[in-house]
Specification:
The chain is an alpha/beta fold and 297 residues long. The protein contains 9 helices and 11 strands.
């Protein structure tokens, strides 16, 4: 496809996703495979999440990339990249962590003994979302704290008198990192487990009920496989006490065969966008719907 693709990004200007254009993962991939022009009058937009309605200001083909567990609303978007396993030609299953890695930093080449030798502390918890739907991980933390100290570097239950600025760098000192989602849904995997793996800290995971589809289950502790929280905590403490058990986790690759999973494939994303660019949506009967939407809300 040699013709120019006029594209823009919406809602990528805050939070974890904020970065120079050259570091935007979608731009990196699309600019390699297509003739991309960033335009203020685009024919296509890729927008992050459905909650910020700025995308409604654009009368062009809309492609959503969801960072929360939301099913695509094809009345408002034309194509969607979400956590869902929805079988629809307008949809691509693309977990949120895709945006932050191509998988190369998760390829394990280190010896497990070296990984263990670098761990000077027990466990960390770095979260700032205190909503009711994220209470499982807070409850789990409180129960673990009754057994052994955990360093809490986020806004929730902070016990370090400061907030962690670089989470991955912070986690590198710890044997374990609590890497729990705010909810448990099939397919819902965010950056939480990724951060722990990038730090070579064993993730203590809870969330995606199909997490084994994406990562080797022998490389992390999945709380959901235990009968209850007490059993999970007992296992964590046992692994902490016995180096041989810790090394069993440390030696395992994060990916099956130590190769990035299919969801991190640039070619897979490019193939999806080839379809998007080939079959753009028809222009809508357009009016400033966002202003109407805001009044409704």
């Amino acid at each position: 496809m040699n013709h120019k693709i006029k594209l823009n990004f919406v809602n990528f200007d805050g939070g974890f996703e904020k970065c120079p254009l050259e570091e935007n993962r979608f731009y990196q991939i699309l600019n390699k495979f297509f003739n991309i022009e960033i335009s203020n009058s685009p024919d296509f937009i890729i927008y992050l999440g459905s909650n910020n309605k700025r995308y409604l200001d654009y009368n062009c083909t809309r492609i959503v990339f969801e960072n929360e567990y939301e099913e695509p609303n094809f009345a408002l978007c034309d194509y969607a990249m979400t956590f869902s396993y929805l079988d629809d030609p307008r949809h691509l299953r693309l977990p949120y962590y895709f945006y932050f890695t191509d998988g190369s930093d998760l390829i394990k080449n280190e010896k497990p003994e070296k990984i263990l030798a670098e761990k000077k502390k027990f466990c960390n918890f770095v979260f700032s979302n205190s909503s009711r739907r994220a209470q499982f991980r807070v409850t789990f933390l409180k129960e673990l704290l009754q057994k052994k100290h955990v360093d809490c570097g986020g806004k929730i239950l902070n016990n370090m008198d400061k907030l962690v600025e670089d989470k991955v760098a912070f986690c590198k000192d710890y044997k374990f990192t609590i890497a729990m989602e705010n909810k448990s849904r099939v397919g819902y995997t965010t950056e939480k487990i990724l951060h722990a793996m990038q730090a070579r800290s064993i993730p203590i995971y809870w969330g995606n009920l199909a997490i084994n589809d994406e990562f080797n289950p022998k490389s992390f502790i999945n709380v959901q496989k235990f009968a209850n929280t007490d059993a999970a905590i007992a296992h964590i403490l046992d692994v902490d006490r016995h180096d041989d058990l810790y090394l069993e986790y440390a030696k395992e690759p994060y990916f099956y065969n130590n190769e990035p999973n299919e969801y991190l494939s640039a070619e897979r994303v490019a193939s999806f966008f080839d379809r998007v660019f080939t079959y753009p949506a028809k222009k809508r009967l357009f009016f400033p719907i966002r202003k109407v939407w805001d009044k409704v809300l």
